[in-house]
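> forwarded from #structure-qc
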């Protein structure tokens, strides 16, 4: 799978603001894509996008907050930094409580914005790694047979081999064989690692 380059997606209906942000961020070596409305960003949005969104709170048609809610409903995990006017701070705080990454008040210092973007990109990287790890665990779980799955659930629940044998009405030797295959397929060496992998997906 080809690596997706993280980008800064600037969504703002103010052309001067888009231009100045683009100039600042590209000058720092970031890849920047600008959108003049929430709708135009939604049309271009793809699940595999990486990076962060710098989003104006107040826009005609669909506001930044409405776009945030829409992205949330689509399962987007791109970190969002809201750009707010002074009167919009309560709205931005409410957005933070609903999962936005950060907000910055206009007029802002360039370095403040750059610091927030750096944090958002680090968060995006963590989210991507977590997603990759979860996908790997899901794929491994998918390789287990029905019986191996049953044995694994009982092992993770803390049952001993003898208890598992009694519950599933199979021999201890069969339990041990299934258990060994579960560990191998799940790519873990210890019971603690197995429990952690299963709990990760819960």
């Amino acid at each position: 799978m080809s690596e997706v380059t993280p980008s800064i997606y600037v969504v703002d209906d103010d052309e001067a603001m888009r231009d100045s942000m683009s100039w600042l961020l590209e000058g720092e070596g970031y890849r920047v894509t600008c959108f003049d409305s929430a709708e135009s960003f939604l049309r271009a949005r793809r699940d595999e996008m990486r990076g962060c969104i710098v989003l104006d709170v107040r826009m005609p048609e669909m506001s930044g907050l409405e776009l945030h809610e829409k992205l949330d409903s689509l399962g987007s995990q791109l970190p969002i930094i809201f750009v707010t006017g002074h009167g919009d701070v309560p709205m931005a705080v409410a957005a933070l409580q609903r999962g936005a990454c950060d907000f910055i008040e206009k007029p802002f210092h360039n370095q403040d914005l750059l610091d927030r973007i750096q944090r958002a990109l680090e968060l995006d990287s963590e989210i991507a790694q977590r997603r990759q790890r979860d996908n790997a665990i899901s794929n491994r779980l998918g390789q287990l047979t029905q019986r191996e799955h049953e044995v694994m659930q009982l092992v993770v629940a803390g049952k001993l081999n003898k208890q598992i044998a009694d519950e599933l009405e199979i021999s201890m030797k069969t339990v041990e064989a299934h258990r060994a295959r579960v560990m191998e397929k799940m790519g873990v060496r210890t019971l603690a690692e197995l429990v952690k992998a299963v709990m990760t997906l819960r």
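QC bot note: The domain at 7-131 is CATH 3.40.50.2300 (Rossmann fold). The longest helix spans residues 110-142.
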